[in-house]
């Protein structure tokens, strides 16, 4: 049995704040996360914390290594420290994925903020919608840029930026989003995530690093001058050393000991559209290629054309609905009633419209002229004819091809030993309904589940009701219908389903490692979106190779070239890893690439035109995938494989040791505090039968608790669970009198030599908590001082191990003054030693920061000195020209030119010295700011004193 003294000691140790470079710093975050932790992820998270003086880090692990998990660990740790103003900026189509990961894996509340929720908050009187101290805020790049003033005024503890290569051209004034965000986030601690930190130019590294900390390098000119010539090995070494404190990169080949990878296999199902489908395609295509269209607002024409082309390629059912919506909207405009937004009209047809539109222009309704009115009347008639033709087609060739593709795909899955499960992706909800009808009349009719943005169909509702009933009272039920509906449908697909038909919007952020077949019924033109789709199944935890099925229209030259580009250039459908970093990173934004493809469809009519346009696009991609930059990235950012593997091996051992100790301590603490209220099944699970009297019960359900969670219906027990928090608070708050404790070493499993020597002896022990604040961060240290009755001082290991031995209180005790003095002196010596260690560690951090500022100051001076060298060169040339002059007039003019340049050089020298002095003053100010943070403040809080004996 443990005592209240053990309990207070354990609770204090569990939640004490660790130093930034401590290997057990992440114990709370790791133990509280529902993820299989890999050592490279822990290593990356600790790198992000390495120095308290750091302004942030660039985590650049290769694709597929879990940068979201790494960021989740950093966020969890900040959260545990009470630093809860966290902003995540991500591409719009990744917002839901972040929301799911933070909620389901780290149990951290999140809110996605976009125009609708922002405006609703303002309307409700909340004029600081970004300032949610109890929730992580997630928004898109575009929204953060548009609300830059709000972003700037919020005192963020941490800002995480995903797909950060979008910021790599921040040094160019033309990159408005990057520059706006850099200004808005200048003083905040930032974590940048990208697999492609260096793509086409070293200046991209300069841009990303300066986004984090503008004092790492000088200005752009000095960076160019110093690092333009990378043929010299010394230049590489200098740049590598400057990047080392801020950039961290791990490669997939370095982690194969921990992360098993499976392959992708591509299946291409070709089809030929029927005559009526062909006619519809040509009619709509000709219509969309007209110079002037009343149906599509000028400011949104390219976006709406893209959407209509995607719906046309999806199914006749999808385009029929869209054509009807547009013609009805035009009729309202003709009748002079204000029509609804075209975006709202088409959202029903094309579910990913919100995310796509985020990065396109806003709608504008132009006034109608008489000429426009005649065109409008004609367009309405045409659109209704197109819609009528589309509605008359009740079978699609691609729909028939799907049945053949499923047979081939399932055969391949059986060959690979995988379950026969397939997820079919479509970009249209109407096509989703059509596919359900197609499959209902086929051998694949059973066990189909739909997944979209609303899931209002009867089957989804029934699955949801059954799931809520089954998990009632467990942590699985969040209370959010949207989140719980998603979980219910995924669980059904895992346990009973065979085929899931999903729209783009519905499938964001779900993990389907149990499914090994992805069917792209509609193929996006955005490579990042395709990778995201396939990544639902081909991800960590997938045990089988994944089959990827695509469809190709034999009659469409542009479709064939798009597929070729995605397959051969982007390598999306085959291989072990899917799309490579080099290739995906070449396109900065998938939406921009999508616009390029849409432009070709819109402008090119003949096969030769289409071929030429795609050849040009392919050549551009080839040029951007630069071999020289790949070489530079390897030398600058990648460490030797053996060096990394050895480091990860040690990190793995450390993490597992600390995690095991942490979990054991937490379960021991729970066993003591819940005595009589819970049945402990084993060392990692218990059943809470009743809510204890000392607990209000709010947010603390009864039932099975596990650490780690192994069964779906159990609660994950963790320090940050309401029950864990209540237990720790109760143990820590006890005011414990001096007491006698008999430690039962005889009943302890295993041998502890330090305690064995104490058997039959007795003495005194005092515990206190030292809290130190320096460099803007706090850390806590548990101090234990012990002595035997014969005056022998116990070692630190002996005192800490003693507190792991069970025992019982045998009575009260009175502490002699002499013992009080001895223990106080021992505690004071420990405190002095710890404070000295902290001071030495902070001195190292200070040195790193001072070296960085020295480099920054030297860079700026290099730029100034370069201007003087240029003037020296001009003066030499002017003197040579004056000497060679043939006439007196020319010689005098030459001498005047020399004199003018010399005067300019003298002025420049004076300004150079002034500028250098100014740089040194700035450096001194920055150093003084750091020195101000070095000052330590310390507080010691007594925990308890005991009279001990060991039997």
UniProtKB/TrEMBL annotation:
PROSITE patterns per UniProt: HELICASE_ATP_BIND_1, HELICASE_CTER
Coiled-coil positions: 861-891
Record's keyword terms, sorted: ATP-binding, Coiled coil, Helicase, Hydrolase, Nucleotide-binding
Keyword field contains Protein biosynthesis: no
Pfam families hit by this protein: Helicase_C, SNF2-rel_dom
Metal-binding keyword on record: no
Gene Ontology MF, one: hydrolase activity
The Helicase C-terminal domain, residue ranges: 401-584
Domain Helicase ATP-binding: 48-215
Protein name, per record: DEAD/DEAH box helicase
Originating species: Sphingopyxis bauzanensis
Taxonomic lineage from the root: Bacteria, Pseudomonadati, Pseudomonadota, Alphaproteobacteria, Sphingomonadales
